[in-house]
Structures are given as structure tokens and as C-alpha cells.
Amino acid sequence: MHLPPERLALPVVDPPAPRARIPVVAMAAPLVFAGVLWLVTASPYTLLFALLGPLVAAGSALDGRRGARRERRQRLRAARDDLAELRRLADAGLAARRREQEERVPSLSALTPRSDAGWWIGTGDVPSGIELVAEGETPELAPEIAELRAAVQTLRRVPILLPPGDELVVAGLDPLVRALSRALVLQAVARCAPGTASVTVPPDEEWASALPARCAPGREWRVETAAGPVLQLRRVAVLLGVAGLDLGGGEEAPSAAGVCTGWRPSFLARAEASAHALRLATAAVDAGWRPPGAIPASMELSELLADAGDAASSAATLGHDGASPVQIDLERDGPHALVAGTTGSGKSELLVSWVLALAERRSPTELAFLLVDFKGGAAFAPLSGLPHVVGVVSDLDPSTAERAVRSLRAELRRREGILAQHGVAEIGALAHGVLPRLVIVVDEFAALVAADPGLHGVFADLAARGRTLGLHLVLGTQRPAGVIRDAIAANVTVRLCLRVIDPADSVAVVGVPDAAALPAAFPGRAVLRDADGVREVQLARSGPGLAERIAARWADAPRPADRPWVDPLPARLTLAEMPRLPGGGPVVGLVDVPELQRREPFALDPWAGAVLLVGATGSGRSEALSTLVAASACATRWVVDEPAELWAALTEPPAAERSLVAVDDLDLLLARVDGEQRAQLVELLARAAREGRRGGVALAASARGTGGLQGAAGTFEQRVVLRLADRDEHLLAGADAPTFRADRRPGSAVWRGHDAQFALAPARPPVWRSAPPGIRLPEGRWALVTPDPQRWLDALAAAGVDAAPPGAAPAAVRVADADGWLAAHATLAEARREGWLLLQGCSSAELRTLTRSRSAPPLGDGDAWRVRADRVERVRLLVARDRDQARPSGASSASSP
């Protein structure tokens, strides 16, 4: 291994210049000049000029040497700066060469299909290829240059790569030879496409079996493909157990150039080699390779169905276990199956694939599906177009889901009857097409039974009797613990557990904890337990368009005539559509009886017992009462809002042999009277319910709830509960808790535990009005009690009627309030005795005070009480001038008497 050379120039400082000579002439000239002056002047001071020459010469020499030393120091400082920059460049070059060498190291755990890559045999110290050159020497920088040379001439602990080739021999101690050979074999396999290499290793190197290659035992280490050998450990190129490794010599005699020192071979223990082999296999699987006998990572259902070939028509090909396709036959291995798996494990996809795999091989006359989706209704959407599907129900419509499941009990009885009719013991003995098998697929069984715990019993019954009757359950749930009870689990023989979080869930389904260790990266990976034992499988995905292709295949095929349940009741019915009963009783709608797989006429006969329709605002209770009236087809007294009319309807003799008293909003009507009158009305209702049937009179009423009926609720023997505001009111009305639904549509009701739908009546009946006897003023001598006597006096005077207070002169009509009449007790007693006492606009308390009578009918507008022989009756107050008009009560009476 040789790295490309790189030359870096070292900084050089020129040597110092030679010292300058002493200027003799410059020193002698001042001496001569001083001697001449002394001869001329004879003054000894002139001899001082002789000293200037030597002093100037010495100073000049010293100054030159000092400047030379300063310049030398400056050049050395600049050279050291250049040397530091050179060190930085050299370090960057070393890092780049190390990085380049490390990038060339082949991975032992990733597929690297490169034929030009070298063989990585370990790490060591190699010459860096960086050379420091200089045109001269600088003694002052010699130690620093020597240190820099030592730092850059060697790359330490870098990957050692041998040139690419296919022949190598590893010689040395056997454990060391094996350790290095493992690394070389892994590199060789990583260079090959998955599944194309053949590996030969010693027999005890079991880790090699996990490689994405064909592995065979042998004496030599070898990797080859169809194109030729990739690695043969033959020629001597690596010597183990020596201090150095020559990287640049020939085959037999390595040269001294490029010697690697401090070599650390790339030894791999068996455990490390096994981990790398598994990673290579995983990368190969992700690239699409499938090892012989391995479970595929994913697969398409369409491919499996195309290869199903000779499989039984009752078997569903659902996946692969690595050795062969996985087929589940509910008729042979079942009759029932359980599928468990956490969110995202592929549970819903499996249920869809299971239905498609069965529908692809069986006609609608042989096989039918009931799909129950309690995860929002979208899971089985692709299957709705299959002609085999007799129904799809979801938690978006809980009532429909519940009634569909409850209908299955009736389906059991129906199938038992068919078997008995044909004289066979099980469905397999029937002729082809007589009775299709029914597969009930439930996605999220836990949510279904949580909505109605009573369904546990239904499914237990289906599980126990399903085999002979051709009913099969496929139950999907996230966590089976506490959901799949023993009565069901005992008959579930096919069990599939996809990935779960808790090992206990896996044990509960398949008896082993393996499903908790399934990889999340492989949706559809599951543990299957059936007649063949427990094994890991990969389940197929249905893929887009498959359901449409299967539906198109059977588009023209005949379909089964019978369904396991009838459709829910329609939202709108008319009386003209209703069937007629043989006895001629009133039919007001239809009743849903899913456990008998039929609809029945909603017969509501008020002559069989008083009828009470209870419902909140907007529930359709008034329309339901109108329907009952129309269906009864008899004389009807329709009472609305007026307590006086109800009293009259209950007390007046019937106008025909059969008549019906229908009271709308009875609770509101009772709330309009005081306590005494309310109690009397309740008693009249009870009497009408008890005795009316003998006289041909029936009673029916509607109310917003039973709480406002003030004891009258017990009068009604038949109750129909429409939508109420909450569950508590629903229970108080006499219905069961499971029948409560806050979203009931108008006219939908509960009748004897079943859902019912009222038909629409053509129109509401006319409001019935009674005709109380009229009292004409002033014909007769009347004592009128009113809370506003003056206004009545004025009104009667304006009408020409002789009226006066009790204490005044005799008059045809005497008028006063209750206190006034109590003061005129003699006149009051006479009026009571003669039957001329009238009370208009008075309260029941005033009536009791004046007459000591507790029983009095309620009053309507313009009505009054007449007291005669201690008997109180309701009368209509008239005046002589306008005998055909009812006298208005209250404040308006004065203006229009």
C-alpha cells in the first residue's frame, strides 16, 4: 500500500554576512590633522582631535554588528511562522489522507458491489508520503524541523488495504488465521449480489450459514460466483505473528519500501462474524433477496392465488412459511379461527385477504360472508362489492350490528330445520347449492361484546353448533385476554397471532410468546397454530383491484335466496302498506324481530288495555297517537290541552258501540289543574281503563315522560317507548337499558323489548269538543260568583239585564265575589237550595268554601260551575241578547257579554 507523495518546502534563513573591516584611513586622518594644528598653534588642546578618528571608527563597527543581529532575529521569527503554517498544512494533509483511506475500507455489514475495492486486513502505521524539503539549512531551526519531520512522515493506525485480487494466503497460528479469514470472507460476500456467491469455509464455522450466499464446508476459505473466484486464500501476502508487514514488495521477497509497522490485523471472533452475517442477510432481504427456506418479508395475495393449483376449494391460501404456501381450511381444520394483533400489525388486512382468498374459489351459492367491523366501518369497504357478502355492519350503526348478530340465533334454527327436512346430520351431506356455508368475520370482537355483553352467549352458541350447520367464526381482536371466553375458545382450533406487545397475549392465543418478538418492520408476520403445529408465517396483502376482479368473476353467478337476517325497519311507513290481521285489530306499524329473522305487524289494540306512548319532543309521539287513532277506525274523542274536555270525554256516554279516547300530551294536561282536580282526573282515567272496555270505550294517551303523570302511569297496561332524553327516563318508562338509543328517529319505538316503527297517519284527527248545557241570563234568578263583580255588573247592565249585588234591591241576577256572598249567607243558602248558584272564574278553593263540595270538573273558556242539590256541574254561560255565543270569561267578559 503506497500513498501518493507530496513535497512541502521548508523555510530557509540565509547565513549572516561577514564582519566589516576596521577603517584605518578614517582613524589616521584625524591624528595627522591634530598634529598639524599642534605645530601651528603649540596648544595641547589641539591634540584632542586625534581621539575622534578611533572613536568614530569603533562606533561604526559596533552599530553594524548590532543591526546584523537584529535582522537575523527577524528572519528567524518569520521562518518559524512559516514553519507553523507548514505544520498546519501537513496536519490537514495527514487528515485528508487518513479520511481517504478510511473511506476505502469495505463494510463487513453492508452490500458493496465493487470489484475494484482492496482487501482490508487491519490497521497499522504507514509512511504518509509527505516529504519536507529545503534548499539549505538553518541551524537555529534544526530541532523544530526534525520534530515536524517525525510528526508528518507516518500515518498511524490507518486501515491497511491490499490491492484488489482474488488469491491470498493467510499463514500463521490457526486461531489467528481463522480470525482474519472471517473478515476477508465477509468482504468478499459483500461485494457479490445477494444469492450469487458460493462460500466454502471449514465445517465448524456455522456463522457462514447466515450469509446471503450458498455455503458449503471445505478445507480452504473460498468465495466464488458464476463469473469466477472472488477470494482464494493461497498466495503468501500476509504473514501473521510477525512484527511488520511489507506492503510494496513482490510475491516472494518483500522490499524495504513502504513497510507497515504496528500492524493490528482485522481479527473477527465467531460472534462478531455472525452479527455481520445477519446484517448482510437483512440488507439482502431489503434488496429483494429471499434465502432458501426463509420467510419472505412481504408478498401479494394475487400471486398466491395464481399458484394455488390443486388446493381444496374450501382452503384459503393466505401466506408462506418459507417452505410452502400456508393454507387454512376452516372446514377441515376449523371450524373457527381467532386472529390477534396490535394496531399496525396487519390484522384487518389479514381478514380482508382471508375473505378474498375464500371468495376466489367458491361461488356465492356455496359460501357467504357476514362482515362485522367495529373499528369504524372502513376495514371491509373493499369487500362490499362481492356477491358473497350478505351484509356489512359496523359500530357506526350499533343497533344494526346488534340486530344482525342476534339474528344469527334464528339462522341456527333455520339451518337445523333445513338439515332435518333433508334428513342429514351435517351440512356436508347436503346437495350442492342447497345451503351455503356462512363465514362470520368480526374485526375487533372486544368492542362488539363490550357494546352488548349479552352477545357472548350468542357467539358461544355459534361456536358450539357451527361445524355441523356450516357456520364459521373468524374473530379478530387486539388483546384476547378476558375477551375470548372458554365457551368460545374451546371450539377455536385455528389461531393466528400477529405482533403483540405483551408476551402473555401471544401465549393466550398460540401457546408460545414468539409473537411478542415479531419485527414491526414486517406487517403481516404472524405465528400460526393449527393442526400442523406452531410456526412463523408471512401473510399476504390483498393489493389494489383484487376485490374488484373477484367480484367481476362472480357477477353473473346465482346468489343464495335466503339471508341470515332481514333488513332493518324503514324510516318511513304508511298505513296503506300495513298488513291486515285476521281479527281485524289495528296495525300501526312494523316490529323488528331479528331473533326470528322476520318483521311482524305492530298490532296495538287499545281495547286490550290502555295504551301510553312515551317520548321526548321530536320523537313523533303525537303522530304515533294519530296513527293509532286512524288504524282503530272508530269514533274518537281527540283531546288536546283542555282538562275540561278530558273530563267530559271520560264522563260523557260514548257516541258509538266502539269509541276511543285519545289524549295528546297527558302530562301537560294534568299539570294545568290543581291537586284536587288532578286526583279526580287520575281516578277517572283509571275507571275508564278498568270499565271502559265493557262499554266499548278504549283509552290511549301520549306523554313526554312518566314522571309528570302524577300516578296515572299505572293506569296504562300497554306502553310504547319512543326516543327519550336519557337512559334513566328510558328505564323509568318501563323499557330495558339495552334498547336505549339517543339517536332514534321519529316514530321509532320500543315495544315489548323489540324495535318498532310507526306508520304515518294521513292526517291528525279533529280536536273533540264537548257541549255543556247553556245557562242563559237573565232567564231565572241567578246568584253569580265572580272575582270581578263590578265588570260583570257593568256588562250585564249594558246588555239590559237586571243585575245587582246581594244586599241591594231584588234583581234577576245578583253578582258578588266570594267574600261578598259569604257575607250574604242567607241569600247564598237560598241560591244553593234552589239551584241558582253560578261560579264563573273562581278557584276550586272558593268553590269548596262556598259549597263544601270537593268534586268539580275543570272549566274551559266561557264555562262556569252550577251548584244544584250539592252537585257541581259544568255549564256554558250565555246572555239573553246573544244566546248562540259562549260567554267569555275573565276580563274580556265585560266588553262582550
Question: What is the gist of this entry?
Answer:
With 897 residues, this protein is of the alpha/beta class. The protein has a 10-stranded mixed beta sheet with strand order 13-12-21-20-19-14-18-17-15-16. A 7-stranded mixed beta sheet has the order 31-37-36-35-32-34-33. InterPro entries: FtsK/SpoIIIE/SftA, FtsK_dom, P-loop_NTPase.
Give short descriptive properties of this protein:
897 residues, alpha/beta, Rossmann fold, ten-stranded mixed sheet, 23 helices, elongated, disordered C terminus, transmembrane helix, nucleotide-binding, FtsK/SpoIIIE domain-containing protein, FtsK/SpoIIIE/SftA, P-loop_NTPase
Strand and helix layout:
Layout (H helix, E strand, L loop, with lengths): L5 E4 L14 H18 L10 H52 L15 E9 L2 E4 L8 H11 L1 E9 L4 E5 L2 H17 L7 E4 L12 E4 L4 E4 L2 E12 L4 E3 L12 E7 L4 H17 L14 H6 L8 E6 L4 E5 H4 L2 E5 L6 H13 L7 E7 L15 E6 L3 H25 L14 E7 L1 H7 L3 H15 L1 E7 L8 H4 L2 E7 L4 H8 L14 E6 L2 E7 L6 H8 L33 E7 L4 E6 L7 E4 L6 H12 L2 E6 L2 H9 L7 E6 L1 H5 L4 H17 L5 E7 L14 E4 L5 H6 L15 E4 L2 E5 L15 E4 L4 E4 L3 H10 L4 E2 L8 E4 L1 H6 L1 H10 L2 E3 L4 H8 L11 E6 L2 E9 L18
Parallel strand pairs: 1-3, 5-9, 6-7, 14-18, 14-19, 15-16, 15-17, 17-18, 24-27, 24-28, 25-26, 26-27, 31-37, 32-34, 32-35, 33-34
Antiparallel strand pairs: 2-4, 2-11, 6-8, 8-9, 10-11, 12-13, 12-21, 19-20, 20-21, 22-23, 22-30, 29-30, 35-36, 36-37
Helix pairs in contact: 1-2, 2-3, 4-5, 9-11, 16-18
